[in-house]
Write a structure and sequence with these properties.
Helix content: over 70%
Shape: rod-shaped
Number of helices: 5
Distance between the termini: 69 Å
Strand content: under 5%
Radius of gyration: 26 Å
Structural class: mainly alpha
Number of strands: 0
Length: about 170
């Protein structure tokens, strides 16, 4: 057994106390980790709910335009606006993914496949559709797909290697 002097005893007590304090500050506690996971899950559920609502509105606008000939300016604008809302929300979801604030399992199993489809197929098709509807109905529309308008979508596509056809 090691015998400590009074000074060594106090020094050891202080060192152990400081180490305990530092470990408590820098090592996340189990409850803190669980709280963080729960917050990420709730954040993810909220994002998915908003995504589904935007997707439903976008799909409805597409169906309306497909069912009418000729397409009016109002219907065309509704389609463009619904598409903008839908793809802007996907861009927000991607920003949240890049910040690490979504549940990892939901990200990998649900969100990344949707983002792969958006980046590789849906987003380019949306702009092609708008151009075709405008040309067919005599509207002037000069929009085009620009990666700079959807930076988070393309950041997620590159970070998680989501290139190529999602159905391949």
């Amino acid at each position: 057994m090691i015998e400590l002097t009074q000074g060594q005893h106090w020094t050891l007590t202080i060192v152990v106390g400081v180490l305990g304090l530092l470990l408590g500050v820098f090592v996340p506690k189990w409850k803190d980790r669980k709280d963080h996971e729960q917050a990420n899950l709730q954040n993810t559920q909220s994002l998915i709910t908003k995504h589904e609502a935007n997707f439903a509105a976008y799909t409805e606008a597409i169906e309306t335009c497909l069912g009418v000939n000729p397409v009016t300016v109002e219907l065309f604008t509704n389609l463009a606006t619904a598409g903008t809302r839908y793809f802007d929300h996907i861009n927000v979801i991607c920003g949240v993914i890049m910040s690490g604030q979504v549940n990892e399992q939901v990200r990998n199993g649900t969100l990344l496949p949707k983002i792969r489809a958006v980046a590789n197929r849906s987003l380019p098709f949306h702009y092609e559709t708008l151009a075709n509807v405008a040309a067919k109905n005599g509207f002037t529309w000069t929009g085009r797909l620009r990666r700079a308008d959807y930076p988070s979508i393309y950041a997620v596509a590159e970070t998680f290697n989501l290139h190529g056809d999602p159905d391949a």
